[in-house]
Task: structure prediction
Amino acid sequence: MKGQMTELVIRSYEDSDLQALAELINAADQVDKAGFATTLEGLAHDLADPRIQALDNVFLAESHGQLVGYVGMTMRQHEGHECAVAYGIVHPDWRRQGIGTALMKRAEERARGLKGAKPLFLDMRVRERVAGAAELAMSLGLQPVRHSFYMECYDLQHLPEPIFPNGIRLRNYLVGQDEAAFAAAYSEAFSDHWGSVPHTLEQEMHRVSAPGFRAEDNLLAVDQDGRIAGLCLVEFPKAEGDMPHSNPPMIDDLAVRRAYRRRGIGRALLLAGMHRIRHEGFSGAALAVDADNPNRALRLYESVGFAVKSRGTVYRKGL
Result:
């Protein structure tokens, strides 16, 4: 039922809001099918990420005590500039009433308050299937600066076996052993990707502490000396109880370090991740890729059966 806004309050997130925020995110994802569905445990862990600082950087929109939208913001430090990356959602029944605008203005106000000596940009990442999000970004003066593709593959029954080159083997992540090496390998492998920032050991320790973390979903290609050559991280959809999944499992991250590229390791890791998804009983897989990926990733994904289903855009403005 369409909600009618007669009063709007924007306030900071509090720990007691967790249940209502999870319900909001899941209600929106049932309409948007954007893959943002979550669980209470998963959301609590996400909000505890040291980069987020939820009590300071997450804001809620309420109308007569009902949670109708939220926005969060993380600061990303680049070599020559900073980015305040905003994300959030408005309940489908409460859209087109200025709630998203009010939330984004609060996020922008917060970002301006954190501005240092470097140039600061406000970024908003938009999936085209989320109705009204692109129009909201443009109305606030943000302009498109980067595009991505959301891809899916539903032919997991005829996958070739992954073949790694001589001297490279596949293994699962080892919690308590791989954290530092993984953080370094991840940072290096993604360093030539647009918008990349270093992945710290603190962030990696937080990632592996997630309630749903499984070592077998984190695949590593290692050389004869045990050094990490590449990685493939598989993320299975989260849902509470009998709530249907909105998206297939994701090949969440796939990367190969520079010294090991052009040897087929990326393709082998991708296939290993797809086999992992099939092993769990899923019939499809999804991933997202930068439209201007410097390493011909789009061609690789298409070669194993992925096809573009929708697009995403990063909108930006200077503050």
